[in-house]
Design a protein that fits this description.
- With 515 residues, the protein is mostly helical.
- The chain is 85% helix and 0% strand.
- It is built from 20 helices and no strands.
- It starts with 7 loop residues before the first helix and ends with a helix.
Length: 515
């Protein structure tokens, strides 16, 4: 595939011209290429994540998987603290400097990398030192101390990998971002499963993550060096200050975001026990992994929208079209899983995991909101609206965690899921109102679009509900899901949510970008 290329070679070829090096405006082909590369890596992560989520609960049993889930959630929290917004802040500055002053790109990246590594190393050391205290607080098993200390290395690897990936996003080198993430995901899943099979248990699964992400850092770092080779690189206080200034609100956003993806698992583990944490973590991880295609779209269009804003160009059509694609994909997926939740859990995990069913159904509307947010949040970040996101997301997160601390012990895992869904609905609503004004998208256009897709998804869900009694076993499940998907697609064309000409054009652009 071709990708929108930025780097020393491009600068030399165009004799240092900023406009020529970046291009005043990316073409539809280059955007399709970026989405294709990003989607490829996300689909690989989705498939591998599904394999891991299907096998680990069976192989580690409910208590072992709960132990594993608590460690992963704790590592996710510390990794956010370690990054504290330096990755996405650096991505935004890379995107903007590629227009303003391309020769400074290597210096911008170097300054951000030094900041990221320094903070990550300190956080990793703190996690290693205070692991026993954290395990006592979470009421985890004694064996969790050693596992969490392995997780301390994972914190450093995760933070650096995300920084490298974010830099490629800012450069619009989605092919290199895809390659870095794919190497990490393939290695972490393969090594985790291999070490568990070899009898290493939970600590083996965490070692697999650590080694896999470490390998991704090596590969991604080498690719980034090649991309920026030939450009002058210096550690600049001004670039450090710029990155840190915008990283602070993004870091707060990351911590609030953690409250919606992992904090519940820790709270459930503390108040309801390790086994319940394992049950609860399955829908949480599923919603996160299923939203990957939306993240691919958001990561691709956000830098483009930022540069269009910088140039005073309109972005409304691009933003509304992206929203439509997210709804077209995730509303039917969520509706299918809601209707077929019980046979899905029985087929994948067995009767011992039936408590997952109710939580899984509640988390499907959250999946739709989370997927929309994967686009909305990226656009807001690159448009310089991180401070707005801080107020919205942090306020909602404080309410969510506060209510969770007070009531999870009595409401159980279903109550935890309802708290997450209700508070995140407010967050996404606030994002939409702001972006619709910023991008000048008429509310009527969005409401009409949403109602049409909801009607098609509702008809699909009704048909699947009528056929759910036949969904016994993986093949029957897939058949019922496919029948419903066929109905949804037919209604989407009938309601003109998407047209054959548009679909053919999208496929044609993807084919052109792969040449």
């Amino acid at each position: 595939m071709r990708s929108y290329h930025v780097g020393a070679e491009g600068l030399a070829a165009h004799k240092g011209s900023c406009e020529a090096a970046r291009g005043a405006e990316p073409t539809a082909e280059s955007l399709a290429s970026g989405v294709a590369w990003n989607l490829l890596s996300k689909l690989v992560a989705l498939v591998l994540g599904a394999v891991l989520l299907s096998l680990l609960p069976r192989w580690l049993a409910s208590a072992g998987f709960g132990h594993y889930s608590l460690v992963v959630s704790a590592v996710s929290f510390f990794a956010l603290v370690a990054d504290f917004g330096t990755g996405p802040s650096n991505a935004r500055h890379v995107a903007l400097y590629s227009v303003r002053s391309p020769r400074d790109l290597a210096s911008v990246v170097l300054s951000g990398a030094v900041l990221n590594v320094a903070v990550s190393a300190l956080v990793s050391l703190a996690c290693f030192a205070f692991a026993p205290m954290l395990v006592r607080f979470l009421r985890g098993p004694d064996a969790m101390v050693a596992t969490l200390r392995v997780g301390a290395l994972l914190i450093l690897a995760t933070s650096l990998k995300e920084f490298i990936a974010a830099t490629f996003q800012g450069l619009r080198r989605m092919d290199l971002l895809s390659l870095t993430n794919t190497v990490g995901n393939v290695a972490r899943v393969g090594l985790s499963l291999a070490l568990v099979i070899a009898g290493q248990g939970v600590i083996g699964a965490v070692w697999g993550w650590t080694i896999g992400y470490g390998l991704a850092c090596v590969v991604g770092g080498y690719l980034l060096f090649r991309e920026l080779r030939g450009l002058p690189a210096r550690l600049d206080r001004a670039f450090l200050a710029e990155t840190l200034h915008y990283a602070l609100p993004l870091g707060l956003i990351g911590l609030a975001f953690f409250a919606y993806t992992q904090a519940d698992v820790l709270l459930v583990g503390k108040f309801l026990g390790t086994e319940q944490a394992g049950f609860y973590s399955i829908p949480v991880q599923l919603a996160t992994w299923l939203s990957f295609p939306a993240a691919a779209l958001g990561m691709t269009i956000a830098p483009t929208i930022a540069t269009r804003f910088e140039s005073g160009l309109p972005v409304g059509d691009m933003f509304l079209k992206s929203t439509r694609y997210v709804l077209l994909l995730f509303l039917p997926v969520a509706a299918t899983i809601m209707v077929l939740a019980r046979p899905i859990v029985l087929a994948v995990y067995g009767e011992g995991f039936l408590p997952v069913v109710a939580v899984l159904r509640i988390y499907m509307p959250f999946l739709v909101l989370f997927s929309l947010s994967s686009v909305f949040s990226q656009v807001l970040n690159f448009a310089g609206k991180a401070t707005f996101r801080v107020w919205v997301l942090c306020s909602a997160a404080v309410v969510k965690v506060g209510v969770g601390v007070l009531f999870i012990a009595t409401l159980g895992i279903q109550g935890a899921a309802w708290i997450t869904l209700s508070t995140y609905a407010v967050v996404v609503g606030a994002y939409w109102v702001t972006l619709s004004r910023l991008c000048r998208v008429p509310a009527r256009s969005f409401v009409t679009l949403l109602l049409r897709i909801l009607l098609a998804a509702g008809a699909m869900a009704l048909l699947q509900g009528l056929l759910s009694g036949y969904a016994q076993g993986p093949i029957a499940l897939l058949a019922v899901a496919a029948i419903g998907a066929g109905l949804f697609l037919g209604l989407a064309f009938a309601f003109k949510v998407i047209t054959t000409a548009e679909l053919a054009g999208l496929l044609g652009r993807f084919r052109m970008s792969s040449r």
